[in-house]
Amino acid sequence: MTKKQTLKIVAFFMTIILLVAFFASFFNFNKKQECVRMYGYYAEPDNSLDVALIGSSEFYRGYIAPIAYDESGFTSYALTLASMPASLYLPIFKEVSKNQNPKMYVVEINGVFYADQHEDNRLREWFDNVPLSKEKIKDIQDIVPEEDRSSYYFNFEKYHNNWYDIKTCVDVFSQKRIIDADGYSCMKGFYAWFVKSPAKKLKMKSRPMSEQGEEYMTKFLDYLKDNNVENIIFVRWPHRNKYEVKENYETVTKLIESYGYSFINFGDYSDEIGIDPKNDYSDDEHLNPIGAEKMTRYFARYMSDNYDVKGEHSEKVTKEWDECTQNALKIIDMCIKKTEENEGGICWRESSYKSLLKKWEKENAEKK
Amino acid sequence: MTLTSVSFAVFVFVALIVYYAVPLKYRWIALLAASMAFYGIVCFKYMPYILVTTVSTFFGAKVIERIQTKSKAYIKEHKKEWTKEQKSEYKAKVTTKKKLVLAATLVFNFGILAVVKYCDFFVDTFVAVLKIFHVTIESPHLGFVLPLGISFYTFQAMGYIIDVYRQKVKAQTNLFKFALFVSFFPQIVQGPIGIYDKLADQLYEGHKIDYDNLKFGFQLVLWGLAKKLIIADRAVCLINYVCNDAYSFSGAWILTAALFYSIQLYTDFSGGIDISRGVARMFGIEMAINFNRPYFSKTISEYWRRWHITLGAWLKDYLFYPIAMSSAFLKLGRKSKEHLGKHVGKILPASIATFITFIVIGVWHGANWKYVAFGAWNGLIIFLSNMLEPTFASINEKLKINTEKLYFRLFRMFRTFLIVLVGYYFDIANNFSEAMMMMWRSVTDVNPADLIDRGIKDAIGLHIRDYLIIIFGSIFLLFVSLYQEKKNCIIRYKIAQCKAPVRWFVMIASVMAIILLGMYGPGTSASEFVYMQF
């Protein structure tokens, strides 16, 4: 075989590798909004976050990071995934600690209630979007069932046929490019659902801490204790009043407090926060933008009153957060209006937030 | 480690590097090591089976050859002093000795195959027969698991010893070289069944690294992967869904499943063979062709000359001819000529031998009466078509049909396909009676509107895009086959004559099509190769 022929073979396989790499990044999504939220997190400059929030949908639907910045001046990001199991608390905590040095970690405890802590779709929401590293490989080995692991290391094996949904591929791809162009995520992964949903029939849902949930929560707490992590609190985000069964998280509270950590159930402060059960929820478990705005401002004040969370940042970071907050305030205003009108619809796209902003600016200009 | 897995690709890559890295004369050792490693990785605990076959056949062949050599020398030594009768008597004795060794080896190895493959079938049949006589006993299932490729390597090894017996080839003197012939890893999974004098030397001589071998081999692998992963593994979803509970489906669904099976079986088996042949080609080894566009066959005999060619050739050489040329069959030919006429006398012995051969083909496919029926169906059609050939010829003549015209050729192809399709019902059904039910429904209960049932369509798990891929994939395959049939050429060589941008585009597009359109990864129900189970 000649040298030219060898080069041809090398060039051919290099081309294939490049194409596969492109398609792997293009088709790689499990749930679109999770994918974009995680991408937005990685766009945050290193050591720029004062507070890191870890938890499930309660956070991304009920917490607006730029509003917290506006209220109390601390930077934050809710690194949250839909129905995040407790098995992911530790991997996410470790991943955040790699590039950020937050003054406080806030963990929503919803994940301990899931019976199956290894549900494929849930784990993928995290692992699909985390860059490959030694820790990631170790976490996969610790959490993911053995027979499924190969497609967690190289998830193109699973997502190569996402071309079925080419529209979403293009959508996710373009949202990521918007984050790239801006240099940050405009709404920090906030998911706005413009719905006021008064509960029709309130049921008491009994969902105690699961066996697996307790096992992973204990592992997480052990890790925190062993590594002398003190800057962490555990919280329960508000749910519609009669919906929660207190006994369900009393066991969680006991477990957390046995390690010397604090647990705050913000549901108990709903009246103080000013949350109206009829207007401020989009469903029984999630706040709508009206409730999210109230809750975020209350939480921001609570954090700055009780903890030293406001950090010093570079001019660049401060400028970005100022800019981001200015825009977010306008966007949230629009979101609240839409929710008050019970318009319906969901907003998670960077582009949609931008178009909302344009609309708001146009309306204001017309008024003037 | 299936032939379509990433682990197999890595295995081949490493094997190629090792093969071309060692000196030329030791390359067969690298190939043997790779073959043993492959077998060990896939099914280590069944290695004794293949080793026993290898050793017993190797020594069996050596003994046969020693008898031959000794007898030749002995005859030469006594040439002058022996009479013709004495010489014949001695030769007969030697032949009996050789036959004994051959028979012992054949019985021993086919015995192993029979035990692991057919034991439960025989026991079940015996229990069923006892039941007729009101004796009820519980069937003691022994539940043997088939060692990988046992049917293929047993046939290949037995073909070798018969060839040694017939003095067509010299017995191999090196046990390890013979082990390579039996276990060569690209073909162990599902063939093609190699003939010793065509394959062995290629395995033993070291091949120099050659760009064309790598390129054409890789292209053949791609073609096989495309057939298997893009078409076969999609079609199998519908087939499994319908055939697992055939009694619940209307004729329209059953007929669709059978038609899909005709696509799936061809793309699966020929795809697997293409991968095997492609991998072998990368090592510089040209393996036998196993398919020659079988659905273009105009008769069922032609179909069997185009489908699983190496099995057909094996059975023709080692089963059909020995039966047809046996003294009993020659006698039958003479008798039937006397009593039933010249045509029948000529055709009858061969037709009966064909029928027996097809029963064996059926049984080779599996231990189930449905496979016996599959063999009998094919054998019967060939038997009848041979017997009725003059009748058909006279009908064509009376109706002034020009059998060379395109429409008639197409009609014959369609007719042959229908006959083949009927045979496939025995494959996809769980048993003989279910096959009958499925055939009945496919002709009496065909309402295309049934196919619109959304519930079933959703449950199958195929999207409309999947059906389009199967359809367009099959049409593409048809056009490629038509081109090959018409031009009698190999497309890979045609592509090689194109300009560089076209060649690169074709290659890159092929790889990306397999990567993006292939059915693999979690959440898909990609299946093993159909012929692996045989």
Structural summary, described in words:
The complex is a heterodimer of chains A (368) and B (534). Chain A starts with a helix and ends with a helix. In chain A, helix 4 packs across helix 14 (289-306) and helix 4 (65-72) packs across helix 15 (315-340). Chain A is of the alpha/beta class and 368 residues long. Chain A has a 5-stranded parallel sheet with strand order 2-1-3-5-6, sandwiched between helices. A two-stranded antiparallel ribbon of chain A has the order 4-9. In chain A, strands 7-8 form a two-stranded antiparallel ribbon. In chain A, helix 12 (246-258) links the parallel strand 5 (232-236) and strand 6 (262-265). The model of chain A has no long low-confidence stretch (mean pLDDT 89). Chain A has helices spanning 3-27, 32-43, 57-62, 65-72, 89-99, 120-127, 134-143, 150-153, 156-159, 166-182, 211-226, 246-258, 270-273, 289-306, 315-340, 350-367, and strands at 51-55, 76-80, 104-108, 192-193, 232-236, 262-265, 281-283, 286-287, 346-347. By secondary structure, chain B is mainly α. Chain B has 3 domains: 6-207, no CATH class; 210-291 and 449-534, no CATH class; 295-428, no CATH class. Helix content of chain B is 75%, strand content 0%. Chain B has helices at residues 6-21, 27-43, 47-78, 84-132, 150-165, 175-183, 185-188, 196-204, 211-243, 251-282, 300-306, 309-324, 327-340, 342-365, 369-387, 389-398, 406-428, 432-444, 454-460, 464-487, 491-496, 500-517. The longest helix of chain B is centred in the N-terminal third of the chain and has 49 residues, at 84-132. The model of chain B has no long low-confidence stretch (mean pLDDT 88). Chains A and B meet through helix 1 of A and helix 22 of B.
